[in-house]
Amino acid sequence: MEAISVVFTNLPFLLLGAWDTLKLTFFAVLIGLVLGTFIGMGRLSKIKFINIPSTVYVEFLRGTPLLVQISIVYFGLPQLGIQLQAYPAAIVALGLNSGAYIAEIVRAGIQSIPKGQYEAARSLGLTHWQTMRYIILPQAFKNILPALGNEFITLTKDSSLASVIGVTELMRRGQFVITRTFQTFSIYFGIALIYFIMTFTISRIVRYIEKRMAVA
Amino acid sequence: MNEFLLEVKNLHKSFGHLKVLNGINLNVSQGETIVIIGPSGGGKSTFLRCINHLEDYQSGEIIFLGKKIDKHTSNLNEIRTKIGMVFQHFNLFPHMSVLENLILAPTKVKKISKEEAIQKAKLMLEKVGLSEKINAYPESLSGGQKQRVAIARALMMEPVLMLFDEPTSALDPELVGEVLAVMKDLARSGMTMIVVTHEMGFAKEVADRIVFIDKGVVVEEGPPDVIMKNPRNERTKSFLRHIL
Ligand SMILES: Nc1ncnc2c1ncn2[C@@H]1O[C@H](COP(=O)(O)OP(=O)(O)O)[C@@H](O)[C@H]1O
Ligand SMILES: [Mg+2]
Question: Domain A2-213, what fold?
């Protein structure tokens, strides 16, 4: 009984953490979207000077642990004179990381658009960038929306790693409560439920948007 | 003074080791309608795509309005606005309405005002007989309607040369006529056109010349009645026997 009530008495404290988790994830996804769109296009560029760095970026960030990346940004960068608070550091690290995954999603999205679309636009006199902006990317984003939703969900869960550098998101706040109450199982289980409610809601929202866009 | 709108001289193009164009020569005068015929894989599409530089080429010259079109051409986008292209598979933008398909390039490339572009789009849709489809999306149109919209979209840029790459070969037979009718009107209005097609009725009616391309060269060219009735080359003869 006490095991359950401890979750409820600490719920406001935990929900503040959940709110931070959402904000953290939201800003990271925003960075990831901008970064991923450009790097995804870069991956498809015929210009080596653009293509190779984009490929290296994607391979490196996907091939190294997020925990190490967070540590580099928070503990490592100060040695190079770049000092970030824990919260912005977490946003940057998660954003850079999701940028790599989103780049691959965007790349696949662009490749899913028939070549004739690009050619029709160019034959009308549109530049490469205008073609990307008005023709290719709008269609690509419609196709990759489910994959982007998945990335949002993955990042919501992965943001729990920000707890190791002291960001008071959901996981970290859960650990605080545990050190006070020693209710390890119920608190961890409680925050698992909160994570699940968040990710489930996001997936429903994405599905809703998807349906709306399919109609338009 | 240059009398030709388009001159193609000894054009060579290969994809890797595959030689696709092996020295194409063709001059096109203002107002001419040229019909290109030839077996599949002979290089007809590649030839058209070289003209507006959707494909680069290895050697030869393409001179349009007195200027060379090649990979060093700096105002390629501007030149492309003067060359309309119509594709076998229409290539309408599916996320845009018919109106949006038509006004995108005029507003973004030519920077004319949206109001002006809309006025023009209405006139153009009237021309191709699709005024009532102005707010429709491509997926709701028949193949013939799609192709007519694609023609209208190209005409919005006021091109001086129109390229058609098998514009009716993806259509159900009963829809071919409406597209050919629009193209005939266009030819009669004085537009310079290069049309890859095997619609020999169309060729007979409006072509000034028929050009037979095979294995990347112009094998034979001449007025429709000559090419269709008395072709000199054996390859032309056997090809025509197949399609007529
Ligand atoms: N992008 C490409 N890459 C490689 N080969 C190509 C490409 N486009 C066309 N080809 C080849 O070039 C040849 C000519 O094709 P094409 O110009 O489409 O002929 P046609 O339009 O007369 O049927 C064909 O053998 C075709 O397979
Ligand atoms: Mg072809």
Answer: MetI-like fold (1.10.3720)
